[in-house]
Specification:
Blueprint: E1 20-23, E2 29-31, E3 41-46, H1 52-63, H2 65-70, E4 74-79, H3 83-92, E5 100-102, H4 107-111, E6 118-120, E7 129-131, H5 132-137, H6 152-163, H7 169-178, E8 184-188, E9 194-199, H8 214-225
Parallel strand pairs: 3-4, 4-5, 6-7
Antiparallel strand pairs: 1-2, 1-5, 3-8, 8-9
């Protein structure tokens, strides 16, 4: 467990904490210190696999893993899903060369400063509280995935149905405790210093449910690799 948690997302120039987690796609543990002093690493911290947006964010991140590896940069995907449930999912939905870890207690998210949003009736104090009036007014625009811009709940239901995702008790427990968990990706240099990040916290939540532009990430990766 990290020595301390931060009350804001880590930013470029910050030193990433060490976090030790159960590996999903291999045996044993995986940690941030495994890469420190060795190779840069892109760390993606996501909600559980029950979240259809995160499943797509994970796929997007995995699609760039090969290009990052050519630059000498590793990738680590972290999900808020219990280990056995996560292993079962990736067994049937494999992503080539994916290194993933399980963090159902969201330790890594707190260590990197990603809050778990509290949903309220009408009070909004981003990024810690969001009123249901604000949430229900949001529209998700995913032209390749959704037939039209849709509300969060309608989009979630549509994507889950499209994926044929079957919920388990593990999924329901993760939703109960971490439905409002915000996510992000952090590019660390070989010394464990953040050099680039993309989080749902930024820009008052306008990046929620989105993915970073591939060109932005690869540009930052090229600078880290130089």
């Amino acid at each position: 467990m990290p020595d301390s948690f931060t009350d804001r997302p880590l930013q470029p120039g910050d030193h990433a904490p060490n976090v030790v987690l159960d590996a999903i796609t291999r045996q044993g543990k995986v940690s941030i210190d495994e890469f420190r002093g060795q190779r840069p690493v892109l760390v993606g911290l996501f909600r559980g696999l029950h979240c259809p947006f995160c499943r797509r964010q994970i796929t997007s991140m995995a699609s760039l893993a090969g290009d990052l590896r050519e630059l000498g940069i590793d990738s680590l995907t972290v999900v808020n899903t219990p280990i056995e449930r996560a292993r079962l999912y990736f067994r049937y939905h494999p992503l080539p060369n994916l290194l993933a870890a399980s963090d159902p207690d969201r330790i890594s998210h707190r260590a990197f400063g990603l809050p778990n949003v509290e949903f309220t009736e009408s009070e909004t104090a981003w990024p810690h509280k969001v009123g249901m009036d604000v949430l229900t007014s949001m529209k998700i625009d995913m032209p390749k995935e959704l037939p039209e811009p849709m509300g969060v709940m309608a989009a979630t239901e549509y994507l889950d149905k499209a994926d044929g995702y079957e919920f388990t008790e593990d999924d329901r427990q993760m939703i109960a405790g971490g439905e409002g968990q915000l996510v992000g990706e952090f590019l660390l240099d070989r010394n464990g210093v953040v050099r680039w990040c993309f989080t749902e916290v930024a820009d008052n939540g306008r990046q929620m449910f989105g993915v970073p532009a591939a060109q932005d990430l690869m540009s930052a990766a090229s600078n880290v690799a130089a």
